[in-house]
Design brief:
The protein is of the alpha/beta class. The protein folds into five domains: 53 residues, N-terminal domain of TfIIb (Single Sheet); 262 residues, Rossmann fold; 191 residues, Dimethylsulfoxide Reductase, domain 2, CATH 3.40.228.10; 35 residues, no CATH class; 132 residues, no CATH class. It is 36% helix and 14% strand. The chain is built from 31 helices and 24 strands. The strands form six sheets. It has a seven-stranded mixed β-sheet, with helices on one face. A five-stranded parallel β-sheet has the order 10-9-8-11-12, with helices on both faces. Strand 6, helix 4 and strand 7 form a beta-alpha-beta unit. Helix 27 runs antiparallel to helix 28. The longest helix is centred in the N-terminal third of the chain and has 19 residues. The termini are far apart. It binds iron/sulfur cluster. Iron/sulfur cluster (SF4) binds next to helix 1 and helix 7. It is found in: Cell envelope. Keywords: 4Fe-4S, Iron, Iron-sulfur, Metal-binding, Molybdenum, Oxidoreductase, Signal. Its main location: other. Its cofactor is [4Fe-4S] cluster; Mo-bis(molybdopterin guanine dinucleotide). GO terms for molecular function: 4 iron, 4 sulfur cluster binding; electron transfer activity; molybdenum ion binding; molybdopterin cofactor binding; oxidoreductase activity.
Length: 751
């Protein structure tokens, strides 16, 4: 470009059209986004964008973008100013808050928020005084999160997109990546090409993905569990299971085996429609080609038995021992670009950021992070009960408007609904939703585009459309489906009169009277909160899943270093290496200064259990390190296996010969705490110096304990309160994450 027209600047950003997280290299001239290339150096992109990714520039500039705030008056859309919009919406909300209570408004957030906006959105409806908020994850992969987290700990993809080409076989079920995640599909095809990896596709429909399959398994919709059990029948029948892996690491496989025994080839064929001969072939292929990856998408999740499906997929991986290794694992392709991040950051009706539950301990934890008085925050809610009770999921918000519900305080119905980056067309029962919309006092849609939510009802008044900027008009972090946080740079300023989500949240919080508290430690200039301060704030609170080590500075540097524009260097390396990944996949424990590199593959099973390797079998894993004896484990709330839990712990210690190191007091402490799960706090406050029993997930509470028993049925570290005066103190106390080598040890339990 000539000096007169301005040089072209290259800005690295991240595609917004699916969860793969491909890099977009934007060409910007005089502040205008004039061209686009794929990040050819990216280990995700493989030098390409798919058709969706190639269209992001046009999409961001779309003619149908909302250009200014608009209000429906007597059935006609009327242009209004931002001041008028915020004032009118705010006044109505304040009236609703006063007369009907905070639960009479619903805050429907979005997987299109970046992490900082998602976090602020959750904080926003907490400060408003309600848990009535949710986002798209509820209707796509919530069954995955429940199924996978309850099987082995984290409700997320275990490996990375670019690890798939290390797989020796691919087992794809309930997904169509050739259309939905096309660049991820390239990694699958690469595995096929370079490893001769057999590609098995199970789907009731013959899809474009199935067209690439070596083995296409057509089965009856909804019979996934039967299909998996049918495959496992052949695995067990022929002794193809990984016995050593199961013996060391998997608890409960005997019960599964007993169940699978009922799924004979004849029975499986009767239920699923798949002949036994084909299932035997599939089982043999998987057994002969390990590690294989298991990939699923919403064909597996959007069922009333979606949890069972996703757990069955996990069990297949455990039986054949392919979890916790490169090329293996369960790779769950999510939908929107930040559906993982928005879930992690708590845009849900039943959790706070970091999967902290809604118990008082969680609220206290976040009150400390937010630097607000817990009692003040509690006062924002209709009552403590409402504060600690789940809100209503998005799939049922309209019931709330149509009928008086117990979730609504002061016996009133839902009166205001805010669709913030949620189009509504992904939901079922649209006629009910339409009816509910028409009953509301106020409907607010915040979006770059007029969505279906804006037009599907026949309201005459009280509907507002607020133009939001796209994700290319701001910056912040985004978490791809593979848990990797990347920094997405702003490409151009918000178009027309649109504003970024965080600016709109600030304006509304100011009008509603809680901006000073909500943005206490976040710098705000010209009504725009500083995104980097938001990242730093959630870094201080997200101990549970390791969102603590990804500071904005680190993410920016990481992106810049990994995405070099230096073609020569990259070519000398022969392109992106297998181990390359963008950003910092969680968990990245500790503080940014500690430099934890992130975790591309969850659940490292490379070491035997006795050496601290992952143990799915144990309620507790135990690890020795010098004089330190560390034990860690988990059991899910409500699972059967919590019975016998202290016995198991001691058995585990004995088995490893480490029980001898325990003093009588320590033994008693383990037995006492493990035996009394209702009163952890009291037990721990007994001043135990060498043994700490963790009821939460954060690795920092026990910096000085000699023995750590770590349990996370509910990640509310209530017992930690006496120890946990200031996070910063603990961090200062803490040697390094690497020194301690803490593992979270998930387990398997029966459905
Ligand atoms: Fe964008 Fe997904 Fe296509 Fe990559 S695969 S270019 S992230 S839509």
């Amino acid at each position: 470009a000539s000096a007169a027209t301005g040089d072209i600047k290259l800005v690295k950003s991240v595609c917004t059209h699916c969860s793969v997280g491909c890099t977009v290299i934007a060409e910007v001239q005089n502040g205008v986004w004039v061209g686009q290339e794929p990040g050819w150096d990216s280990p995700f992109n493989l030098g390409a964008h798919c058709a969706k990714g190639a269209s992001v520039r046009e999409h961001a500039h779309g003619e149908r973008r909302l250009k200014h705030p608009t209000k429906m008056v007597d059935g006609k859309w009327t242009k209004i100013s931002w001041d008028q919009a915020i004032n009118e919406i705010g006044d109505k909300l304040l009236e609703i808050y006063e007369t009907s209570g905070p639960d009479s408004a619903y805050w429907l957030g979005s997987a299109k928020h970046n992490n900082e906006q998602a976090y602020l959105f959750r904080k926003f409806y907490a400060f408003w005084g309600s848990n009535n908020g949710d986002h798209q994850a509820r209707i796509c992969h919530s069954t995955t999160v429940a199924g996978v987290a309850n099987t082995w700990g984290y409700g997320a993809m275990t490996n990375s997109y670019n690890d798939i080409h290390n797989s020796r076989a691919i087992f794809q079920i309930g997904g169509n990546p050739a259309e939905a995640h096309p660049v991820a599909m390239q990694h699958m095809l690469k595995a096929k090409e370079q490893n001769n990896a057999p590609f098995i596709v199970c789907d009731p429909r013959f899809t474009r993905t199935a067209a690439h399959a070596d083995e296409y398994v057509r089965f009856r919709p909804g019979t996934d569990v039967g299909l998996i059990w049918g495959i496992l029948w052949h695995v067990f029948e022929n002794g193809w299971e990984d016995k050593e892996f199961i013996r060391q690491r998997v608890w409960g496989m005997d019960q599964i085996k007993a169940e699978v025994a009922k799924w004979t080839p004849e029975e499986t064929e009767r239920v699923t429609g798949v002949p036994g001969s084909q299932l035997k072939r599939v089982a043999r292929t998987l057994a002969n080609n390990r590690p294989f990856t298991i990939i699923w998408c919403m064909g597996g999740t959007q069922h009333t038995n979606g949890n069972n499906n996703t757990r069955a997929y996990c069990v297949l991986g455990l039986a054949l021992g392919v979890v916790g290794t490169q090329g293996g694992g369960t790779n769950i392709f999510r939908g929107h670009d930040n559906v993982q991040g928005a879930t992690d950051l708590g845009v849900l009706c039943h959790t706070l950021p970091g999967y902290y539950g809604l118990k008082a301990g969680s609220w206290k934890h976040w009150s400390r992070v937010w630097d607000v008085d817990y009692e003040w925050l509690k006062g924002r809610f209709a009552s403590k009960d409402f504060m600690e009770k789940s809100g209503v999921p998005v799939s049922r918000w309209f019931d709330l408007a149509l009928e008086a519900k117990e979730n609504i305080d002061q016996n009133d119905n839902l009166r205001a609904m805010v669709f913030w980056g949620h189009a509504a067309n992904s939901q079922t029962r649209l006629p009910d939703m339409k009816k509910a919309m028409e009953k509301l006092d106020m409907l607010v849609i915040v979006d770059p585009y007029p969505t279906m939510a804006a037009v599907m009802n026949d309201r005459k008044d009280g509907t507002y459309l607020l133009p939001a900027a796209t994700q290319f008009e701001t910056h912040g972090s985004v978490t791809a489906s593979n848990r990797s946080l990347q920094w997405r740079d702003k490409i151009f300023d918000p178009l027309f009169e649109s504003k970024t989500d965080h600016e709109i949240m600030y304006l509304l919080a100011k009008k509603l009277g809680f901006a000073d508290e909500m943005f206490k430690n976040i710098k705000v200039e010209n009504d725009i909160p500083l995104i980097e301060d938001v990242t730093r704030e959630f870094n201080r609170g997200m101990w549970t899943i390791g969102y603590t080590g990804q500071s904005p500075e680190r993410l920016k540097t990481h992106m810049a270093n990994q995405h070099t524009f230096d073609k020569t260097t990259l070519q000398a390396r022969g392109g992106p290496a297998d181990g390359d990944y963008y950003g910092l996949p969680w968990p990245s424990w500790g503080t940014a200064e500690m430099g934890h590199p992130g975790t591309p593959v969850l659940y490292d099973t490379s070491k035997p259990v006795a050496e601290g390797g992952l143990c799915f079998r144990a309620r507790f894993g135990v690890e020795r390190e010098g004089d330190n004896l560390l034990a860690e484990g988990s059991y899910p709330v409500g699972s059967e296996i919590k019975d016998g839990y202290p016995e198991f712990t001691m058995a585990m210690l004995k088995k490893l010969g480490w029980d001898k190191d325990l003093t009588a007091d320590e033994k008693a402490a383990i037995e006492k705490v493990a035996g009394d799960k209702t009163n952890w706090k009291t037990d721990l406050s007994g001043g135990i110096q060498r043994v700490a029993i963790k009821h939460g997930c954060a690795p920092f509470g026990n910096a000085k304990a000699r023995t750590v028993v770590w349990n996370f049925p509910d990640p509310v570290p209530t017992h930690r309160e006496p120890l946990y005066t200031s996070r910063r103190d603990l961090v200062a106390d803490y040697p390094t994450y690497e020194d301690r080598k803490m593992y979270r040890l998930p387990i398997l339990f029966k459905s």
